[in-house]
Amino acid sequence: EQAHIGVTGLAVMGSNLARNFARHGHTVAVHNRTPARTRALVEEFGGEGHFMPAETAERFVASLERPRRLVMMVKAGAPTDAVIEEFAPLLEPGDMIVDGGNAHFEDTRRREAALRERGLHFVGTGISGGEEGALHGPSIMPGGSKESYEALGPLLEDISATVDGTPCCTHIGPDGAGHFVKMVHNGIEYADMQLIAESYDLLRRALGMAPGEIAEVFRTWNRGRLESYLIEITAEVLAHTDAATGKPFVDVVLDQAEQKGTGRWTVQTALDLGVPVSGIAEAVFARSLSGHAELRDAAQGLPGPSAKGLTGAAAERFADEVEQALYASKIVAYAQGVHQIQAGSQEYGWDIDPGAVARIWRGGCIIRARFLNRITEAYARERTPVTLLTADYFTEALGAAQDAWRRVVTTSAELGVPAPGFSAALAYYDALRSERLPAALVQGQRDFFGAHTYRRTDRDGSFHTLWGADRGERPA
Ligand code: NDP
């Protein structure tokens, strides 16, 4: 008997994926560099399905039916290259290596090209949903060749999450497309988390609400259009009491947010592509600012505003306004992420369908949310919008939210409560809306000091003004 699929790298993610395949009736070959993990998996969970443990790479490869489907779930970076180098010589043309780790898409492009030369399919695959997702149904974003998806797709769709009967897995596009989309997913996740955190902070500091009360507000929001996994877990975290002190859990946690780097990759890549993902960037910066204890200590004595909180009617309506600001800012964050996916798709020739991406993000992954249906709908129309903001549903939502959104940003400034995510999102919205931008003045400055030239609104061509002489204009 031979295995349908093999998983190598049996730490938490690999074990859970292997179990997920087995629970769906697939025979799964399992392998790990340190064989003790392989034995432990089979001892503990062998009853869940049919596993074929292998202690050596050779035995593992030999146990796979052909064309072989080999999933690797190992540490990203050098270990991934090491594992590829170990297995590639044992494989035959047409075999597939699936990298489900969090690889950088540029590495995936390089690996795919190298393995293609050797006749092998390399399928860089984004997998979101953490440990629980891997076991019960993640959102799966496979790149690589169409041909490889024909052989792999049915197995991956079997183990992915499903929403309304549709699997949260689709072929994203060639080579690094899957890992690119996973990266942007994580960037959006950073932005979404930051916006939710700002909402909490504003409710707490403007209204003096306790964490437990704010948890209730989030629970209410989670029954409406903001319904999502992140809102749901936020309420859980805010409602949690620290057992040791009896204080709200959120008050005993050190307020320095960490990161593993995918948010940073998203912003770095966006800078290279020239895509303004300001909401995602503010979220990454907010985490890094929080970690600068020395700066924050030094700034403790800086003067703040005289206003301390909201009262009266302004206080009454504030929670509702924050909900609107959160929704509007979230739309902007997703619009920026979709723009980045489209720009990457164009740059690398991936032909990614943003509507399909939104569809597979509806379940399994960290940013799963009711609202993603609206993005799928927006891109399912014959004429796809240039930006998500101009899709009918979103234009209406932004229009309805904008007054409240502006008041929330104003209030944050007046009370001295930082809301970089809300402010950046609103500035992006207003910048796109503006008929004229002060970029014209920036062009003038550039031409003045560096003769960088400018284009005119009324004539084609590039021009330079002789700023140091008679200020006459010359074609450049
Ligand atoms: P780790 O990232 O901690 O990786 C541990 C695994 O990698 C072990 O099986 C280990 O083998 C193997 N490994 C490390 N170095 C080598 C090497 N040089 N040669 C062979 N094998 C090696 O495990 P996780 O399960 O947390 O994550 C796996 C991958 O999935 C990572 O790329 C991660 O970024 C990604 N991921 C993780 C998510 C999560 O929520 N944790 C979510 C989505 C993706 P050994 O036992 O012998 O040390």
UniProtKB/TrEMBL annotation:
Subunit structure: Homodimer.
Catalysed conversion reaction: 6-phospho-D-gluconate + NADP(+) = D-ribulose 5-phosphate + CO2 + NADPH
Pathway as given in its UniProt record: Carbohydrate degradation; pentose phosphate pathway; D-ribulose 5-phosphate from D-glucose 6-phosphate (oxidative stage): step 3/3
Record's protein name: 6-phosphogluconate dehydrogenase, decarboxylating
Gene field: gndA
UniProt xrefs under PROSITE patterns: 6PGD
Domain 6-phosphogluconate dehydrogenase C-terminal: 178-468
Family according to the record: Belongs to the 6-phosphogluconate dehydrogenase family.
Organism: Streptomyces coffeae
Pfam families reported in the protein's UniProt record: 6PGD, NAD_binding_2
